[in-house]
Every structure is written in C-alpha cells, then in structure tokens.
Amino acid sequence: MVADTESRYPDWGAVYADNANWVYRMIFARVCNYPDAEDLTAEVFLAALRPLRTTASVAQVRGYLRVITRTVLAAHWRQTMGCEITSIDDVPDVTLEAEHAVNSTTAQQVQRVLAALPGNYRRILELRFLQGRSIKESATQMGVSVANAKVLQHRALRLAATLNEEKEEQ
Amino acid sequence: MSERGLHRYVDDLLHGRRPRPFVAEPFEAAQIRVAIEVRGARTASDAPSERFLTDLHRRLAAPMPRGQQAHDSLNGPHATRRQVVVGASAAALAGSAGIVAGAATAGVIPDGHARAEGPSMQPSDGSWQVVAASADVSAGEMHPFDVGSVVGFVRRVNGQPEAVSGVCTHQGCRLWFDRPLDQLRCPCHSTAFSPTGQVVNHLLVTAPEPLPRLEVREQHGSIEVFVAQKPPTEPA
Fold first, then answer.
1. What is the mean pLDDT of chain A?
2. Is any Cβ of chain A less than 8 angstroms from the Cβ of B121?
3. What is the DSSP string of B13-77?
4. Nearest by CB to B13, which of A33, A60, A158?
5. Which range marks the domain in which residue B28 is found?
6. Per the CB 3.0–4.6 Å rule, which of B50, B117, B200, B223 could disulfide with B192?
7. Could you tell me if A32 and A73 lie in one domain?
8. What is the least distance, in Å, from the CA of B124 to any CA of chain A?
9. B148 dihedral zone (left: phi>0; alpha: psi -120 to 50; beta)
10. Same domain, A120 and A148
11. Residues A92 and A110 reside in one and the same domain
C-alpha cells in the first residue's frame, strides 16, 4: 500500500495493485458474497482504470475509485433488489483508515444488536452467520429440530432488523 | 406476504452463492441489510482471491478495440460470472475530481449533434464518416462507434439507421450499452438513457439533457454519421 497520498502512481498496473484489495473489501462488506463482490470490483476497475491519468495523486485516485465504487454499488442494488440495501457514504477524501473505522463501527453495531436479542435468536444467528454452520448443525447444537431452527433464524432476522431500524430512527 | 424471495436470498448468502434478486419490500430490505451486516462480521472472509485479482489484471491489460465497449470476452471458468460491459476506453469522467480525461470528449458533444428534442441542427460544414458496415448493425442492437471526434451508438429502427451520442450529457462520461436492460448507462452517476436518447432514470438533482441525435445515413453498404468540423455558434 502506498503510504504517501501526495505521490503518484507510475502506471495503471500500480494503481490496480495498490487499490484492488481495498476496493474489493469495501464492496464485499456490503454484498457479502464472492460472485457479486468480484463482478462489481471488475466493473469498478473496467470503468475507472483506463481513462485514469496517472498524473493524479494517490489520494485523488483513491477518491475517484471510491466514487465509482459507490455508484456501481448503488446501481447494483437498484437493478437487483429495486432499492438500496447497503451503501458507501458520500464523504469526500475518506481515508482508508476511515473506511476501517466504518467497518469497525458496523461490527460494533452488529454486536449490540446480537446482544439485544433473546438467547435463542442470538445463538442461531451466531451459528449460521458468524460461524458458518449449516442449519442441521445449528439445530443439533441448539437441541432443536431443523424446522425449529429455520423458524428461529427467520424470527431472529426480523427482530434484528426491527432493532436496527429503531436504532436508526433514534 | 410471501417471504420466499427473502428466505432464498438469505440462504444463498449463507451458502456463498450469488443471491437471486427479487423486488424487496422495505422490511425485507431491512432484514437483508442485517443479514449482510452480521455475515460481514465474520472474520477473515473478505479478502479477494489471488485467482480473481490475477484474472482481472489480465482483463484490464487486454487491448480494447477502438470504439468498442469492454465486452467481457473471457467466458472461461476464470471470467467473472456476470457479463461486465463497461464503456471504459475513453470514459471521460470530467467529474469533480477532474483527474481523468478522454481525448474524445472535448469535441464530441457539440459537433454534428442535434438534441433529441427540439429542432435538429443542420451542420453545413463537416463530412460523412463511416461508423459501421451495414451488415454489422442489426435490429435490436446498439452498435458502438468512435470516429475520434464523435462517439456514439447506431441501431436500426424499422430497418433505418438511427444514431445517438455515446457521451453522457451530465459530465461527459462515456456511456455503455446495457443489453439486458436495453439502456445506455453512465458509469459515473448511474444515469440511464433509452436507445433513443431519452433519460430513463438518474440520481442527479436536475435531470440531464437527453442525448443528442446524430445525422446518419446508409449507402454503399456502410452506415455513416455526419461529423461537423466546427461546433455550432448557438447552443442547441
């Protein structure tokens, strides 16, 4: 990673090498699946890289990539779901550190929401989403039937979404 | 209310598959948001694979045909799974960052173009330039072209060629043709135009102008566009 944001990249290959990773991670955090994250990352770089003047500073290039990523993500949600599910803040000159801070804030928010859920709801979400267990494994762990585990998962998500929305309204 | 789409979406997400789209109600969207946030809190799961990074690098390094969009020709197992069609070769983002520039942009907007609405301009000083072979422009297709000072798309309507500019009227970004949606789309601010050049949707405060139409004719097995030598003295 280039540390000096006032410096310049020697060529587009350097731009790609220095930025592909964080662009991908920024997208992945907002779609959470590899196929979409890979396609959207490709879309960003195909749209952004060729017309890029490498005389731009590192900071400018990153800002530009962020803008493109933001619009590509917004278009993805509108086209697939008809509404924006997740987004990238429209904040100019956001540093990579700030992006890490955003991710960290999201993680804390997730922990808060999980902590606010009844025990069974929290457990099913932890097993399924955080630990990646199958519904069958999760059911066994919790000592419930698979059908029950599914119902718990659906209800837990509904309640978590309600709590999230209430937080946003506050 | 059936939540089948939602449950299937979450299931896909948990299995690492590409989630199948559906039109989400607001509360379904909220649940998907939570699902993504919780799933995203799983550690060490967000790094791109080396295979993907290498493939994309190879795609970016591949030469792009003049006047063509970056059609994803890599349909092998390592290509991205969705067809990515992005106008990139000279996608001049003349945005606030001002860090990119395309050679085609400066002269493309006024030269030889007439607005889709209102009276057409009749440039007298210019020349007809071949933009495609007649056989290459079929019904239902937007055929991209780039003749240096003019970038656009030509298509057939009732057998007759029609052409519009391929540059967004907002900030000059180069458009790409989204075939499944039958729209010309701008990579910079997500504006979409119909094949006739009308704005279909946008995220801007003020709707951008429709795309200028280009004078076009067909003769001797070729499709030609009129390219003016000088910009008009009066705005359209």
1. 86
2. no
3. HHTTSPPPP----HHHHHHHHHHHHHHHTSTT--PPPHHHHHHHHHHHHS---TT--B-----ST
4. A33
5. 4-40
6. B200
7. yes
8. 32
9. left
10. yes
11. no
Question: Across the strands, what pairs with B185?
Answer: B176, B192
Averaged pLDDT score across all residues of chain B:
71
pLDDT band at A128 (very low <50, low <70, confident <90, very high): very high
**Range 169-188 of B in CB contact (< 8 A) with A:** 174, 181, 185, 187-188
Region B121-139 average pLDDT: 77
- With cut-offs at 50, 70 and 90, classify the pLDDT of residue A57: confident
**CA nearest to B40, candidates A129, A16, A134:** A129
Q: Is the pLDDT of residue A126 over 90?
A: yes
By C-alpha distance, the chain B residue nearest A156 is: B31
Q: Give the separation between CA B40 and CA A130, rounded to whole angstroms.
A: 8
Residues A117 and A72 placed together within one structural domain of the fold: no
CB of B210 within 8 A of CB of B116? yes
Task: Decide if A28 and B7 are in contact by the 8 Å CB cutoff.
Answer: no
pLDDT tens per residue across span A102-122: 666 777 788 888 999 999 999
Identify the CATH number of the domain in which residue B211 sits: 2.102.10.10
Number of residue pairs across A and B with CB atoms under 8 Å? 210
Residue B188 lies in a domain: yes
ipTM, 2 decimals?
A: 0.88
- C-beta atoms of B80 and A63 within 8 A: no
Confidence of residue A167 (pLDDT cuts 50, 70, 90): confident
Distance in Å, alpha carbon of A119 to nearest chain B alpha carbon: 16
Q: Which residue reads 């290459």 in tokens?
A: B136
Residue B49: CB partners within 8 Å, gap ≥ 6? A34
State the smallest CA–CA distance between residue A139 and chain B in angstroms: 15
Express each pLDDT in B181-224 by its tens digit: 788 888 777 788 999 999 988 777 678 888 988 889 998 889 99
**pLDDT above 80 (res B100):** no
Asked if the structure places residue A90 within a domain, the reply is yes
CA nearest to A75 within chain B: B190
Tokens of A57: 């500073």
Mutate to test the interface with B, among A46, A138, A146 (most CBs of B within 10 A): A46
